[in-house]
């Protein structure tokens, strides 16, 4: 099979809309059992990539193989082996929670009795058993998302595609979704997700690509990316002044790198506390000081000069 044992194999994958190139020649391999992420800001091309992988949008150019098959030729066969959780919930409001699962199962030709059994198990898995006979509309955003995830699992897919699985959810609802996705990961399900939340990428992804402007700018495990593109610690300094720029010059030579953002200065250092002592030693008095570990946000800033969520 092209791409060896990879479940998803892309080479030079391109998506154009007229003159506009949304995905600009990306290479990706996703191995069985991996939790793989596409991390990038809005407009980076993540959804366009997901839609090509989901066989709902044909590639403009390049090679794409899903479970060894070609979406241009084998769309229905591939879709039967995918579970898709789209960015916008598209549950059927006319149906109950349970019926949303059993009806969906019918599209895959799953016998009624099996579908009923599977719906019961999946409702238990996403902790919606008590709402089984409720209509969809009164559910909270987090419940709807969990139901969409359950629906994506109805056909026991090889790969689950999740497009921004927790966008728009409150922190508690996000944690519940993450917890279920962790569980799936432990069961060996291959997860492919897009996100612009670095904490989501760090928590869930074994490996990820950082996308910007339709291209992949870096690839690796969250830890490897942080080690490669950032320092161990970051000192965030906020000065009570109209422009942080005025202070940046006075921090010269401190740390490996300085980023000046509109509202704060980031010092990239090995030892945050030592750097803070040095700042005070220079008779500088920031309004606030925060020492933290480097994150994927820092990786993105380093690679693109921009923050992930502006
Ligand atoms: N059907 C379309 N026609 C024209 N342009 C499109 C279409 N779909 C996406 N685009 C453009 O392609 C670019 C990439 O969009 P895409 O949705 O893939 O980005 P994304 O990284 O998923 O961002 P988001 O988080 O906003 O979905 C954007 O500039 C978008 O406006």
UniProtKB/TrEMBL annotation:
<keyword id="KW-0813">Transport</keyword>
<feature type="domain" description="ABC transporter">
    <location>
        <begin position="8"/>
        <end position="238"/>
    </location>
</feature>
<dbReference type="GO" id="GO:0005524">
    <property type="term" value="F:ATP binding"/>
</dbReference>
<keyword id="KW-0067">ATP-binding</keyword>
<keyword id="KW-0547">Nucleotide-binding</keyword>
<dbReference type="InterPro" id="IPR050763">
    <property type="entry name" value="ABC_transporter_ATP-binding"/>
</dbReference>
<dbReference type="InterPro" id="IPR017871">
    <property type="entry name" value="ABC_transporter-like_CS"/>
</dbReference>
<comment type="similarity">
    <text>Belongs to the ABC transporter superfamily.</text>
</comment>
<dbReference type="InterPro" id="IPR003439">
    <property type="entry name" value="ABC_transporter-like_ATP-bd"/>
</dbReference>
<dbReference type="Pfam" id="PF00005">
    <property type="entry name" value="ABC_tran"/>
</dbReference>
<protein>
    <submittedName>
        <fullName>ABC transporter ATP-binding protein</fullName>
    </submittedName>
</protein>
<dbReference type="InterPro" id="IPR003593">
    <property type="entry name" value="AAA+_ATPase"/>
</dbReference>
<keyword id="KW-0046">Antibiotic resistance</keyword>
<dbReference type="InterPro" id="IPR027417">
    <property type="entry name" value="P-loop_NTPase"/>
</dbReference>
């Amino acid at each position: 099979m092209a791409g060896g044992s990879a479940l998803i194999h892309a080479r030079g994958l391109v998506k154009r809309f007229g003159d506009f190139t949304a995905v600009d020649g990306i290479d990706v391999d996703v191995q069985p059992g991996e939790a793989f992420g596409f991390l990038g800001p809005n407009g980076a091309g993540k959804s366009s990539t997901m839609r090509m992988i989901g066989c709902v949008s044909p590639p403009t150019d390049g090679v794409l193989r899903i479970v060894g098959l070609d979406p241009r030729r084998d769309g229905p066969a591939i879709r039967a082996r995918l579970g898709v959780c789209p960015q916008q919930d598209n549950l059927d409001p006319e149906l109950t929670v349970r019926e949303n699962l059993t009806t969906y199962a019918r599209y895959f030709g799953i016998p009624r009795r099996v579908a009923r059994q599977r719906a019961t198990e999946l409702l238990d898995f996403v902790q919606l058993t008590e709402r089984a006979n409720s209509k969809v509309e009164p559910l909270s955003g987090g419940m709807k998302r969990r139901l969409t995830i359950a629906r994506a699992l109805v056909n026991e897919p090889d790969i689950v595609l999740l497009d921004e699985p927790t966008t728009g959810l409150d922190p508690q609802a996000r944690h519940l979704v993450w917890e279920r996705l962790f569980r799936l990961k432990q069961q060996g399900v291959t997860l492919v997700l897009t996100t612009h939340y670095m904490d989501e990428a760090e928590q869930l992804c074994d490996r990820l690509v950082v996308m910007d402007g339709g291209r992949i700018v870096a690839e690796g495990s969250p830890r490897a990316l942080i080690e490669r593109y950032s320092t161990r610690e970051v000192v965030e300094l906020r000065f009570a002044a109209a422009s942080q720029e005025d202070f940046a010059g006075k921090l010269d030579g401190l740390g490996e790198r300085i980023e000046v953002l509109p509202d704060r200065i980031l010092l990239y250092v090995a030892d945050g506390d030592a750097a803070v002592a040095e700042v005070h030693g220079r008779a500088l008095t920031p309004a606030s000081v925060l020492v933290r570990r480097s994150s994927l946000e820092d990786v993105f800033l380093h690679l693109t000069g921009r923050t992930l969520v502006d």
